[in-house]
Design a protein that fits this description.
This protein has 324 residues and is α/β, with parallel strands linked by helices. Helix content is 40%, strand content 16%. Keywords: Carbohydrate metabolism, Isomerase, NAD.
Length: 324
């Protein structure tokens, strides 16, 4: 049996696909390429191009492949833009998830790992976020991810769906030079693009209650994240106990200032970031505990900040090369 990876041609999904293959587990990818890249899908992996809003396409996919479970990564992930496009966000993240779950039930497939988000917490009033931290999403994106978790929970009660949801903050780095983060909204691509264009990256606020005065956030390497998706699938396959949600967090976090210093060292581009005023609502520190995931899902911070920056930079450089 294979696992279906929705959004498997995207940055995170493609790493999940390769993590499955590294364990000798077959996968099938479905992706509409709205933000993914067909070249991210390895040769030999069945690739279905289309939207999971298309129930007919999903039914054909489940009929044509021997699928034992789903890793659901597909979604619209731009929190800021979701405020301007709430209906689109709910369609892509809620309606699509409900459609997927309905077809799974029809096909008798009852295992799913859901790629959720720490956006479900909003701005937590605690230095260390745990799974029990109150949920208070502050964007349609965060709300849509929380509703996705509720859909899984309710299908678990109604139809015996075995499920878990993985929440995480900032995913960075690369596990291979041919995979990269191409989001126009994420920190690493923004910094690299600014440097490539001769612009100086910006830091918003340097008077926070942190060691260097800049915000501290949770950054995790995409390959570490992918391994835990496969581990979660393995627990579902084996019928082992599993929590309904897990945070994939560093427990410590790094500051934006530390990231800028590391970027300068790794790239060899000497720069001093421009200091801008604080953005309203930005808390000093948001870091998540990964204790439960470390216990159950092989979760570990295997990569240093230097590893994260270096791998991301190398994949960016490879893409910019004449034959990249």
């Amino acid at each position: 049996m294979a696992w279906l990876v929705t959004g498997g041609a995207g940055y995170i999904g493609a790493h999940v696909v390769r993590a499955f293959l590294a364990e000798g587990i077959d996968v099938v990818v479905i992706d509409d390429l709205s933000s993914g890249h067909a070249e991210f899908v390895p040769d030999g992996v069945p690739f279905v191009r289309g939207s999971i809003l298309d129930a007919g396409l999903l039914r054909r996919t489940f009929a044509e492949h021997d699928l034992g479970g789903v890793v659901h990564v597909a979604g619209y992930k731009y929190a800021g833009v979701s405020v301007r496009r709430p209906l689109h966000t709910y369609e892509q993240n809620v309606t699509a998830t409900a459609t997927l779950l309905g077809v799974m039930e029809e096909a008798g497939v009852n295992r799913i790992v859901f790629s959720s988000s720490a956006a479900v917490y909003g701005t937590p009033h605690t230095d260390l976020v745990t799974e029990a931290t109150p949920k208070n999403p502050e964007s349609p994106y965060g709300e849509s991810k929380l509703i996705g978790e509720w859909l899984l929970r309710d299908q678990g009660v109604a139809a015996g769906l075995r499920h878990t949801s993985l929440r995480y903050f900032n995913v960075v780095g690369s596990g291979a030079t041919d995979l990269r983060d191409t989001s126009p909204h994420n920190l690493f691509p923004l910094v690299f693009d600014a440097l490539a264009a001769g612009r100086t990256p910006r830091i918003f606020g340097d008077d926070y209650a942190t060691p260097d005065g800049t915000c501290v956030r949770d950054y995790i390497h995409v390959s570490d994240l992918a391994i835990s998706h496969v581990a979660a699938a393995g627990r579902l396959d084996a019928g082992e106990p599993i929590e309904p949600v897990y945070n994939l967090g560093s427990g410590e976090g790094v500051s934006v200032g530390e990231i800028m210093t590391t970027v300068a060292a790794v790239t060899g581009i000497d720069f001093t970031p421009t200091r801008e005023p604080r953005r309203p609502g930005d808390p000093d520190r948001i870091v998540a505990s990964g204790e439960l995931a470390a216990r159950d899902l092989r979760w570990s911070m295997r990569h240093s900040l230097d590893d994260m920056v270096r791998s991301a930079w190398e994949s960016q450089q490879a893409a910019s090369a004449p034959n990249g």
